[in-house]
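ingest -> validate -> predict -> emit
validate: passed (alphabet ok, no gaps, 229 aa)
predict: started
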Amino acid sequence: MELGLKNKVALVTGGGSQAGFGKHIALSLGKEGSRVIVVDNDLEEARKTAAELKTLGRDAIALKADITNREEVDAMVKAGLDRFGKIDILVNNAGGASMSPFTETTEEDWHINIETNLKGMWYCCKAVLPHMLERKSGSIISLSSTTAVRGYPQASLFSAGNAAIIGLTKALAPEVGHAGINVNVVMVPGVDGVDITAAEKQDIASVVVFLASEAASDLTSQTMLTGAW
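emit:
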């Protein structure tokens, strides 16, 4: 099945994650023909993913950015546009999690669970959307968690951040849909994706690729549940 991703440019935050979903998503997009901007707070890890993409014959660059820093996000998007001239796909994969009983949660827990997950998504969308709106084309896929709709002990702030990702997506989708931009969520199981098997991570990456493809051009404001609850 031709997915229409050849020569598309995808920006994947958290794309350096060798243990989480980032590498699987970046490589899956690359295997379908996309050029990939691999973004991570750990530049060396981003370079590892970019190197694997290059072995597939795909053009890829590795960029460092803290997604909670507006200036770094803006600079990262500018660097990607300078290199490739466009960004067709934004995958908001980078995130964080810290578990604490609610009465013991701290400002640092708030920063990790709310600012990294929600503010990071907000900054990345704000940086990429003007370009997508100008071109009247684009796909934004954000990863959330089943904690958004199912209670997990000691995960109150993580749950709140992930629920907000879904809410932001559902509000943003109709706002930019007139410009041919799709905005969707992939909800992954549990709190920490590191413990999910490689096969499950590949399934999640495949859902992201589908949502980014022409086969899903009429899908927007959707929350796709993957894996076991």
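Residues 9-225 form a domain with the Rossmann fold fold (CATH 3.40.50.720).
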